[in-house]
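step=encode ok
step=design start
structure_in=
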């Protein structure tokens, strides 16, 4: 049987900190069940806050391109648009995808995310994805082994919208300890296992403001892999 449980009691992260140890401490405090072989899903936003991936919008000067896009999509602050452009690593805007108010951005690792994974933060800030979500996942897994004595797979998740859907879904943006793809060699097909797990975790993690940044998936049989990365899942 596969079950999903959410970790309550995680303190609000507002400044840079050692998030894996904070999570391990909370697990001990809450007597939260984590076993060998479980898969831990952690929200990218709490990783970003803990790693200091916060942009002061007062320091952002929108380019002519960002201002032009803002005129097309007035709801988007031109400074946020500039941060999105910066995340793509291409100042020309060729890695952006826009359609009827939607802004998608292709990141250097091959992922295409709504707004490039950039969120509006508090106090006139923007929050960007962790610089290396696979590395964030690895640190969490290794800390759990040291602090809790359990070997787990870890997926870093992000809420992502689609231009053809009204709501958002939860997808994987980083992983460690498991393959992101589940391949059926006989049929010649593949499933994006990491996204399926991230979406399942979203059932209990919810969206922004719920403050359930970690979910644990128990009972899934999967192949351990400590070399795979999220880039293995993209075209």
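sequence_out=
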């Amino acid at each position: 049987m596969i079950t999903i449980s959410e970790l309550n009691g995680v303190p609000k992260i507002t400044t840079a900190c050692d998030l894996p140890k904070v999570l391990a401490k909370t697990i001990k405090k809450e007597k939260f069940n984590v076993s060998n072989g479980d898969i831990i899903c952690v929200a990218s936003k709490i990783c970003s806050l803990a790693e200091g991936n916060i942009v002061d919008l007062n320091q952002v000067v929108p380019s002519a391109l960002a201002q032009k896009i803002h005129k097309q999509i007035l709801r988007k602050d031109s400074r946020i648009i500039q941060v999105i452009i910066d995340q793509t690593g291409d100042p020309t805007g060729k890695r952006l995808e826009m359609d009827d108010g939607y802004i998608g951005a292709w990141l250097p690792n091959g992922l295409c995310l709504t707004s490039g994974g950039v969120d509006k933060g508090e106090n006139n800030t923007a929050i960007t994805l962790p610089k290396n979500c696979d590395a964030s996942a690895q640190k969490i897994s290794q800390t759990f082994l040291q602090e809790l004595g359990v070997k787990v797979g870890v997926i870093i998740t992000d809420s992502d919208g689609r231009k053809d859907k009204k709501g958002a879904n939860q997808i994987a943006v980083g992983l460690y300890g498991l393959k992101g793809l589940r391949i059926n060699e006989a049929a010649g097909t593949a499933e994006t296992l990491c996204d399926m797990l991230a979406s399942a975790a979203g059932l209990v993690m919810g969206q922004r403001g719920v403050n359930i940044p970690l979910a644990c998936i128990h009972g899934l049989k999967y192949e351990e892999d400590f070399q795979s990365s999220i880039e293995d899942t993209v075209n």
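step=design ok
step=annotate ok -> The chain has a mean pLDDT of 94.
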